[in-house]
From TrEMBL:
Pfam families hit by this protein: MaoC_dehydratas (PF01575)
Protein's recorded name: MaoC family dehydratase
Family under the similarity heading: Belongs to the enoyl-CoA hydratase/isomerase family.
Upper classification of the organism: Bacteria, Bacillati, Actinomycetota, Actinomycetes, Micrococcales
Domain (MaoC-like): residue spans on this chain: 15-122
Superkingdom: Bacteria
């Protein structure tokens, strides 16, 4: 894992173009997939039935794309923080793509580059980050997304 970047509000604007490095690897477990299925009411067999999924199109059960995407939040927290703000907001996502399935038992990590920083009303900053969630040993990433954040002083 790359060392976490922690900056003050006044330093955020200088980060455009900065590569934040890599988060820790995280293993995707069947229990995690099953809990996500329960939380979202998405029990499709390719996720929750290991025996049937073994003979399915991916040769194993796979994580829901939105489960993999949701890991962006804890992995972002491993890589970046603004120390002296009152409010931090996950503002949204742009251009999200699920480019490769993540098989149960695989490990994923995220790499992030901050692409833009701009001011917003209310003494805030809007930060745009390009995030890629990689699968260990795979050429294609699992998720590619533009992650939008806001910080208010």
């Amino acid at each position: 894992m790359t060392a976490k970047t922690v900056v003050s509000f006044d330093e955020v604007a200088d980060l455009a173009g900065k590569d934040l490095g890599f988060s820790e690897w995280r293993e995707i477990t069947q229990d995690q997939v099953n809990l996500f299925a329960d939380a979202t009411d998405d029990h499709q067999w390719i996720h929750t039935d290991p025996e049937k999924a073994a003979s399915g199109p991916f040769g194993a059960p796979i994580a829901h794309g939105f489960l993999t995407l949701s890991l962006l939040i804890p992995m972002w927290g491993e890589l970046f923080d603004v120390s002296d703000v009152k409010t931090k907001v996950n503002y949204g996502l742009d251009k999200v793509r699920f480019t490769s399935p993540v098989k149960v038992g695989a490990r994923v990590r995220m790499t992030v580059t901050i692409t833009e920083v701009s001011e917003v009303k209310g003494n805030g900053l809007h930060l745009v980050a390009d995030a890629t969630i990689e699968i260990e040993g795979e050429e294609r990433p699992a998720v590619v997304a533009r992650f939008l954040n806001r910080f208010y002083k």
